[in-house]
Every structure is written in C-alpha cells, then in structure tokens.
Amino acid sequence: MTSRKTSLLLGSLATITGGLAAQTSNPNIVFFLVDDMGIGDLGVYGQRYIHTPAIDSLAAQGMTFTQHYAGCTVSAPSRGSLLTGKHTGHAYIRGNKDTPNPDGYTYDHPLRPEEFTLGELLQQAGYHTACIGKWGLGGPNTLGAPTEQGFDYFFGYLGQLNAHRHYPKFLHEGNTLINLDGKTFAQDLLVEHALEYLDERKKGDQPFFLYFTPALPHADLDIPEEERLAYDGVFLEAPAKNTGSYKPVTHPRSTYAAMVTRLDNDVRKLIDRLRANGQLDNTIFIFSSDNGAHIEGGHDPYFFDGNGPYRGTKRDLYEGGIRTPFIVYWPGVVAPGSVSYHISAFWDILPTFAELTGQAIPTDVDGISLLPTLTGKGEQKQHEYLYWEFAEQGGKRAVRYENWKLIRLNAKDPSKTYHELYDISADPGELNNVAKEHPLVVQQLSRFLDREHTPSEVYNIP
User: Whole-angstrom Cα distance, residue 87 to residue 398?
Assistant: First the structure.
C-alpha cells in the first residue's frame, strides 16, 4: 500500500445510538447496488407494472430517499464515486474507459493505488469485506482490482464488457478466471456466492461488509425463460430490432420486467438468509442503482416510466440519468416507513460509514455523513451544491444548488457550449429552460461548475 493509505490510523469501534434503539457494536453492512435501474422501476417510487414486493417492503420498514443522486450517469465513474467519496470533478475515474489487459481480455481503467476506498475504510474498522457482482474499476492483477482496493474477497465480473452477457463465458474469483459454459445464468452464481458468504460470516467474530452488485437489469435483456413467463402476455410487444452490440430479444418488455422482479426476489433471499442466520437485527441493508434507466438492448424505459417523473436516461445529466432509488433498512435505528427529502449523493456513503465506525472522515472527499438523517440524532449538514461531469456526447457538466439545476452541454467545444437552467422544485421534469430569465443565477452556478472541475490526465473535459 502507498503512504496515502497507510497514513490513515485505525479507527476505534464506536457505539452508535440511533433513533429507536442502541447498537453496541458496529453493524454489518449489505449494499445491494443494481445496474441501470431507473428510479421509476420500483413500486415504492411509483411503478405500476413490475412487481417489486420485497424492495417495497424494505422501504416500508426503512427509509426512502427522494433526492438521492448517483455518482455519475454511467457505471464506472458512479461506482468510483461511491467507493472513494469523490464527485467526478475530483475523482480519478470519470468515465467508462475500455482498457486491454495482458490476459487478452478488455476490462476497465483501473483505480489508482493511492485511492482510499470504502472497502479499506471498513477494513480499518475491523470489517471483513466482500464484493460479489460487477466491479468495473480494474482488471485482474492490476492495482485497481477489488482485492487491491479494500476487499478481502471478490467473485463476479471484473470487467463491464463481460457483464453485458448474463450467460458469460467466464467470471473471476479474486484474480482467477473461472471458465463457464455460456449456459449458466450468472445471477444464480452471484446470489449463491452471496448467500454462502453470509453463512460463512454467521459465526459473528467480526462485522462484515457485503458489496453486492448484480449486472441486472443492464442489457443484454436476458433472463431464464421460466422467469420471463411470469409476465408473458401481460404487455403488447414486438421483437427489438436495433439492439446494437447486444443480443436480439423477442420479448423486450416482459424480459425487462422479469429482470427487475428477479432482483426483487434476490433482495428477499438475502434478507431471509440474514434473518435465518440471526444477522438481520444488526445489519444495515441499502438498496440503490448506479445510474438512471438505460435505453439499450431493446429496452424502452418510457413504456415502464422507468425514469419516473424525470427527464432523461442513462448518459444524461438530467434528473432521469442521475437521480436514483436509495432505500436504507436498519432495524432499531432507522424509523420504519420514514421518508427523507435530504439532498444526498453517492460520495456521501464513505463519510457516513467513517462516522459510523468512529473514524476521521478523509479531508479530500466531497461527501458529508448521512448518519444524523439515518439515526435521527444530531444535526444533518447540508451540501452547498452537488456537481457532476461526463466526458461523452460532447462533454457535460451539471450542478444542483438548492432548487436550481444548471447543465452545461457541449463543454468540450467552447464555440458550441450552452447552458440550461431549471427550477427543480417547480419543474422536476426539467421541461422549461429558464436560463434567459435568470442570467445572474446562470453566472453564479457557472462559477461552481468551473470551481469543481480539476484537470484529468485520463478523461478530456476542458
């Protein structure tokens, strides 16, 4: 490890007293992060066609956030933000970037070794840590691999391209490639390993952090046929014609609905196993998505209203691309059925667990702890503003300040750059650009855009 990592002192285990009861040791943490699910795909956020009873029950017994944001509008930078506590103006990983590996496969640009991650923070607090699912921040035997970035155990997709296939030819355990037959539904293996991991930690000699990151419901649109049949005939649909590099799909709507319901069933399986193992009462269970609804592989998010009342999808910095579901279940601490309107983002997760475990919050992160909101104790700090940037499609940058949202488009070419300004409180769908009516607001928020961007040697947004 580098001096940046080893310079951080081990934190003491804290006693956290929360809203309804006291926890006398650090709780276990399960972070269930899905891939490309829109905020409107869940019943608790308004979905009418897709069944998600387990996740809805999680919300009924926990806290539902209404203004929570992903780290970015695509996977790698969003996950990097979650794990490092930095927004994309300061983070090292700012986009999806395919990177060849000596093993002959393509993975993703690796995290730098000096990045301090959520996994390392929790290791310092005495946690056993595991990532099971999709990683997307560095290939095998690189310094960005999960076992080099704070995770004691890894099983799943190291690279995002491989994760486009739900019947892949291989997965990884640690840095070891595990060949498959291309006929095995990967989600079955991921859940199997997650349940085995919970069983292994049942002895309770140390708290654990399970970062469970399925590749569903990202395209390919693909699911075992017996699961799709639960929605067979429910929707009027036709085969998807233009799926790009993804597999053709004959029943895109019922397939996507079944993928979401499959995730819901897997939430139930993890909760049931935690309960059976006697772990649930001392576990924080978090559910979220890495960005907004996708529009790939034949999926039509507008049919399902997958972005809810918001404009845009994955790759947009409109609300539909970055506002995500975020549900926290913490028995005895988080008030059942509670709703939070606090404005928060992925980069708040690391500071939250730093405070939870009695450790100093690193000085170079952009997040603030959500612990006061979760426990109902203490004063919740507020962000002055939130910031995002995205290198694709001409370069995009955005800032949310109070109820204002400013988006800068075509940021790479000053001759084509322009701004859109929205009043999120009056216009959550971002339909009415009021930039001309409020030039002083545009001017002030533009200063924030310029202030938060630092140069990147890897991603080009001038």
Answer: 11
84 half-sphere exposure, CB direction, 13 A CA radius: 28
User: Which pLDDT score, from 0 to 100, does residue 462 have?
Assistant: 65
Q: What is the dihedral of CA 10, 15, 19, 20, to 10 degrees?
A: 140
Q: How far apart are CA 157 and CA 173, in angstroms?
A: 9
Residues whose CB falls within 8 Å of the CB of residue 143, separated by 6 or more in sequence, listed in order: 110, 111, 112, 113
Rounded Cα gap, residues 144 and 111, in angstroms: 4
State the angle between helix axes of 75-84 and 349-356 in degrees (0 to 180), rounded to the nearest 10.
20
Contact criterion met (CB below 8 Å) for 285 and 269? no
CA dist 133 and 155 (Å) reads: 6
Please state, as a whole number, how many other Cβ atoms lie within 10 Å of the Cβ of residue 10. Answer: 10
What averages of pLDDT result for each successive group of 10 residues across the chain (462 residues)? 38 33 73 98 98 98 98 98 98 95 95 97 98 98 97 98 97 98 97 98 94 98 98 96 90 98 98 98 98 97 97 98 98 98 98 98 97 97 98 95 98 95 98 98 98 89 66
Tell me, rounded to whole angstroms, the distance of Cα 445 from its chain centroid: 26
Distance CA 25, CA 203 (A): 15
Residue 197 · residue 130 · CB < 8 Å:
yes
Note whether 23 and 279 are within 8 A (CB).
Answer: no
3 state SS for the chain: CCHHHHCCCCCCCCCEECCCCEECCCCEEEEEEECCCCHHHCHHHCCCCCCCHHHHHHHHCCEEECCEECCCCCHHHHHHHHHHCCCCCCCCCCCCCEEECCCCCEEECCCCCCCCCHHHHHHHCCCEEEEEEECCCCCCCCCCCHHHCCCCEEEEECCCCHHHCCCCCEEEECCEEEECCCCCCHHHHHHHHHHHHHHHHHHCCCCEEEEEECCCCCCCCCCCHHHHHHHCCCCCCCCCCCCCCCCCCCCHHHHHHHHHHHHHHHHHHHHHHHHHCCCHHHEEEEEEECCCCCCCCCCCHHHHCCCCCCCCCCCCCCHHHHECCEEEECCCCCCCCEEECCCEEHHHHHHHHHHHCCCCCCCCCCCCCCHHHHHCCCCCCCCCCEEEEECCCCCEEEEEECCEEEEEECCCCCCCCEEEEEECCCCCCCCCCCCCCCHHHHHHHHHHHHHHCCCCCCCCCC
In contact, 240 and 297? CB cutoff 8 Å: yes
For 306, residues 6+ apart whose C-beta sits below 8 A from its C-beta are 37, 38, 39, 40, 41, 292, 293, 313
